[in-house]
Amino acid sequence: MSEWQQAWPSEVGVRTVRELFRTAYDAEPDGVWASPGRVNLIGEHTDYNGGLCLPIALPHRTYVAVSARSDGRVRMTTDIGDEVWEGAISELAPGQVSGWVAYCGGPAWALREAGFEVPGFDLAVASCVPLGAGLSSSAAVECAVGLALAQLAGQRLDTDDDSRARLAALCVRAENEVAGAPTGGMDQAASLRTTAGHALLLDCRDGSVEQVRFDLASDGLELLVIDTRASHSLADGQYGARRAACESAARILGVATLREVTDLDAALAQLDDEEVRRRVRHVVTEIARVTEFVAVAEAGDWTAAGELMDASHESLRDDYEVSCLELDVVVTAARAAGALGARMTGGGFGGSAIALVRSEDAASIARAVREASGSRGLPVPDVHQATPSEPGGCLVEP
Ligand code: ADP
Ligand code: MG
Questions:
Q1: What is the pTM of this model?
Q2: Ligand 1 atom 15 nearest Cα
Q3: Domains in the chain, start-ordered, CATH in brackets?
């Protein structure tokens, strides 16, 4: 067995999604678009606190093949199920659709709300972004669909960072209101506003971005993404509870968001609840770690970068309490096998971890991680190599 789960090369993605389109609708699509999943290097649970995060776009992308229709009808099909959803475009709205239909159709509603004249359409979706692995298959599908439908409505939203930021915001709206998932803005920004070879320093206070060169290969390093294949059902409720704790702490502290906390000790002294104090400590120290990570990464000090990843994991595990056994096992195993640093990434309670490793150790660390999970009776993780890749765009012009 290969050590790695490979992303599809573009040609494979385009061919796969075109075939799906042809099989479903017995016609050729007008065009093909794609948008990537993401992995966050550091800065977890900071986006909804107006903080900083540092995602990269993965080479794993979601591909959509789309044709416009003149009758206001919509048909959608995806590789994660085999039915075709059919309805009027007006049915793609909050409260009217759920599950994958809401994720695929949500951007049509958000674009229409923003004044885009989105026509009816036929859509096929095929993806190599692992589903529910904390690598944002949800934003990948929203952003790919959003790029396609904006273009069919006569306005490309991939021409510059302003238009990409606009589409990212619409896709956040689609996920929040149509799919009903209260996520922050990191995932869609990562899928649309990154550039190859760079991490995206996203300031969630004002939506501004900076491209941070992230070239591990020339320093003999690699980033492994370890999908634990675990997903705990408490994830949704716990996410909401963490957000609520942060918002109530901000109210007590008299700040708009925890980003505004400049003196951590003084803030902690103002909070009575021990659990809330730990939540605040995570958010404030994690935002500081993002700034430090950017500085050491730019200086090529990967030992320091690895230490910051370790510190981030401990903070998420102990103060924010969003890790779980599967994540802790792979993080510990990766470090023991020689990783410079390792941490859970994404929302937590399952999903993926990342490890910063020397290239020559990558295969043995991947093996060690699989063995550690397997020997504990946990699912054997999938291990991916992540290089900072292209953001979403049009692959076959309509
Ligand atoms: P993730 O961490 O992968 O983003 P989420 O729970 O946020 O996990 O999103 C997963 C959901 O996104 C799926 O349940 C599905 O509704 C939608 N989705 C992801 N990929 C696809 C796809 N290829 N086709 C249709 N829907 C998809
Ligand atoms: Mg998601």
A1: 0.95
A2: 100
A3: 10-213+389-396 (3.30.230.10), 217-386 (3.30.70.890)
